[in-house]
Batch of 3 targets.
Target 1
Amino acid sequence: MTTNEGVAAALTTWFEAKLGYPVAIDDVHRHAEGWSWHTYTMTVSAANGTGKRHGYAVRREPEDGLLAPYDTRQQYRLHEAVLHGSDVPMADLHWLETDKSVLGMPFYVMDRVEGIVPAQWNARDPSIFPDDAARHAVGVEFVDILGRIHTIDPVSIGIDFLPTVGSSDEAAVRQIDWWEEQYERAKLFDVPLLGECIGWLRANVATSGQVRLVHGDYRIGNFMIDEHRHINAVFDWELAHVGDPAFDVAWAAMPLFRGRSPLVSQLIDREEYLARYTEATGIAIETEVMRFWTVFGHLRASAPHITAARAFEDGRAPDLRLAAMGHQNLFILRQLARELGYEAPPVGSSTEPTTHAGSPIQISLHNVLDKIADSLSTDVAPAVDDPFARSQASAAAELIRNLAARVEWRATDQVEALQRLRHVLRSAPEAAGIGEVVAHPLPDASEAAALNAALVAHYAALGELQTWLAVNNGDGDLSSAVEEFVLWDLAAQAKMLRTGMYRSRKPEDP
């Protein structure tokens, strides 16, 4: 029921019941901007000769995805409260439908807002921002709207259904707990750097002292601009909560949304951004607060990427973009390492597989995959009109290109990782509770399943050691050995994956 034709067929009778006259539905598109909910836009026309036409957008809850479990009723109520209780630009709202028999999952309907959604991958498009002045004007409006969100009184506009907190510090601890739980629930094996991140966050809580309504995903890509380049709608409120407004401030400034630009969300200078925000809200974001929420932002960004990869790996969600997110998570981890003051040792610019000249096909698998990716991204994707189908072709190209660079990551490399891990774990005192994981001999490199199982077990043991060290931090040599492995592991992972998501950019691009 998620094809464009299926959605149109299912909603025809539904709209007729809501509007009270026969309708025809056309111009149906599933949009690629939202990676969580399914968003469709369409034109609904009266079929009784009156000439009535109206553009609608339908937000359908996914069966599973990045932010499950979902609550369509709460999303509708939040949208309604912000729409009618503030001057934050929002699409007009129409109906909530909780009956799953219509589209397979609950959904709600709002006006289709006309305009362009600037995203981090199209922010240099001159049709969106023709010059620096146009970009800056949107950036100023972007900050001002964030200020409006953070001056909303949730209770006065009827947002009494979100959990309350007693202080911004309590809100921070809740957020750490929540996203650590998401990571633990979704992971296939431990990511050592995220263990370091969570430990750092718990030891360095720093907040603004304020408790406000927080959007939860305020950034480039989650708003639309109209033909006059004014922001006419703010989207994607599914992570809204009552908490420290400094999170939104730091989130919009994350490296993840800057690309190679120095500007916050590729829109506005950081110093001007912070100063204008303080002027709008009276809230000054201190340096240590900004850093705390920036480090947290990397956990908050990484956990959904791991969740996405797990949903795809388990077969619960076939969206190729979710698989691509599993690869993209490496870039988030690389940025996190830098934010924590770690710099992975150099491993070379890329992993170039050897060309197998003796192969009967006379071409390496790497080159075959790379050329397929080039064709998908340069020939197929631009020729596809439907936005969602185009996004799938682009995601497939990115996946194939990244996989091409991983062809040479063989069992011998996994064995090296295991050997390094075992060296660290053997140094752990018995009190750390590591167990017997290092007592077992390494499996033969040809036994792929056993090798993967051994890696999972050893990573889990390293996680236990990190937990032990957080409490018993007197062993400096062991702590250094763990840190050294974490950095080596990050560098080794980077060696597997060239920067495919940026590969099409020209060197002079920011």
Target 2
Amino acid sequence: MYAGKIVEMGPVDEIYGEPQHPYTKFLISSLPKIGDKEKKGSISGKPPSLVKPPAGCRFNPRCPFMMEVCKVEEPVLKEVRPDHHAACHLLG
């Protein structure tokens, strides 16, 4: 979930193993791993206002893959695998 919208849902193993939404990918990559001393990156920018969220995809101001359609059209959840859904224009 990002800014009050579900961006990805599915089986836990798939979400952790092969996340489809850019936000989910950032979240998974930020998780600490035992013995890993590498500094974790963060997502640039600030979380959006929940009172006046951005138009289109709420993640678009922070997404490195943002396209023009992301600014105007809210993506819908699409089935990317059985029981695995993600809401991103990158997924066609």
Target 3
Amino acid sequence: MTGSAALFFAVGLFLLGGVYSFAKQGLPRGVVVLLGLACALCLLAGALRLEV
């Protein structure tokens, strides 16, 4: 795994925790959706950077 893929995965998982926390606190749905999209994009970028 390259360093950039690991970084993308780490940021994506951090954002995933934020999505869970924000949804549990009842923040506006728009914030949760935008954070969820950012999380998905980071995880996707990490998966695409993997060298298999």
